[in-house]
Amino acid sequence: MLLALGAVILGLIILVWSADRFVDGAVSTANHLGMPSLLIGMVIIGFGTSAPEMVVSALAAIDGSPGLALGNAYGSNITNIALILGLTALLSPIAVQSRILRRELPILTLVTALSAWLLWDLMVSRLDAIILLLVFAAIMGWSIFKGMRDHADPLVGDAGAEVQAHSMPLGRSVVWLVIGLLLLVASSRLLVWGAVYVASSLGVSDVIIGLTIVAIGTSLPELASSLAAVRKNEHELALGNVIGSNLFNTLAVVGIAGAIHPMGVGPDVISRDILVMSLLTVSLFVFGYGFKGRQGRINRFEGGALLVAYASYTGYLVYTVFA
C-alpha cells in the first residue's frame, strides 16, 4: 500500500514536470518551424496541457481500468472549471472580450450534452468513441480556421506573448520535446499502477480515485498556466486554456480511451459526475458568454461560488469513501 501511494505521488510529480517540458519543447519547435502563434496557442498550449489526461486515460483503458480513464477525464473537467477558473477569477476577475472564446463557450456546452447523451446507455462503445473523435476533429478544424481569420482578436496577442515566453534554440526544443514525451508516458504508467492498487486496497472504485487524486494531479499543468496568465494580465488565455482542455478531455481523451477498450459506465457517473460537470459547464457559459449586450465576465463572487461547488463535490466524494 505504501509503495503504491509512493508511486502515485512520484508519478504525479514527474507527470507534471514532464508535461511542462513537453509543452515547452513542442511550442518552441513549432515556432521554429514557422507555425502561426495563434495556432500554437490553440493547439499545442491549449491541448498540450491535457497530455497528462490523454496518456493516463489511454494507459488505464489498455490496463482494463475504464473507471480510472473516465474519472480522470470528467474529474479534470470539473477541476478545471470549479477549482482552476474559480481560483483564477477570485484572484483577478476574467473579462471575456475574445470572439474566439465566445464562440467556443456554447460549443463546449453542446459537446458536454453530446457526451452525456452518448453515455446514457451506460456504455462507451467504439462507435461512441469514433463519434467523439470525429466531432473533436471537426471542431478543431473549424476553430483553427475561424481563429486564424480573427487577426484583431485579443486572444491573438496573448497567444503571441505566450509563444515568445517558451522560446529556446531548436536543438534544445527537440531534446525537451522527446524527453518530456518519454517521461510523460513512464510517469503515467507508474501513476496508473499506483492508483489502481490504492483503489483496490481501500475497496473503492477506480472512478473515485480518477475523479480526485488523479484528476487534480493531471490538472496541475492547467492550474500553473492559468495562474501564470493572470500574473501577465492575460486573463482570457487562462479561460482559453480551460475551454480547450475540457474540449480535449470530453472528446479526445474519452474517445481515445473508448477506441482502445470499450467501457461500461457506472450509474453514479451519469447521476453524479456528468451531472456536476454539465451544471458547471452551463454556469461557465452563462457567466462568460454575456447576453443582451452585457460583456461576459467571471467576477470574484462567481469565482468563489465555483470554489464552494468544487469543495462540496469533493467533500461528497470523500464522504462516500468513508461512509
Biggest sheet architecture: 2 strands, antiparallel
CATH architecture: Up-down Bundle
Q: What fraction strand?
A: under 5%
What is the class in the CATH system?
Mainly Alpha
| Average pLDDT number | 81
User: Could you tell me the number of beta strands?
Assistant: 4
Q: In CATH terms, what is the fold-level topology?
A: A middle domain of Talin 1
Overview of this structure, please?
The chain has 13 helices and four strands. The chain has one domain: A middle domain of Talin 1 (Up-down Bundle). The longest helix has 33 residues. With 323 residues, it is mainly alpha-helical. 83% of the residues lie in helices and 3% in strands. The strands form two sheets. Strands 1-4 form a two-stranded antiparallel ribbon. A two-stranded antiparallel ribbon has the order 2-3.
Give a brief outline of the structure.
This protein is mainly alpha-helical and 323 residues long. The protein has 13 helices and four strands.
Q: Helix and strand layout, with pairings?
A:
Elements (H helix, E strand, L loop, with lengths): L1 H31 L4 H12 L2 H12 L3 H26 L2 E3 L2 H20 L4 E2 L1 H24 L4 H12 L4 H33 L3 H13 L1 H12 L3 H26 L2 E2 L2 H23 L6 E3 L1 H23 L1
Antiparallel strand pairs: 1-4, 2-3
Attribute tags:
323 residues; mainly alpha; A middle domain of Talin 1; two-stranded antiparallel sheet; two-stranded antiparallel ribbon; 13 helices; 83% helix; 3% strand; globular
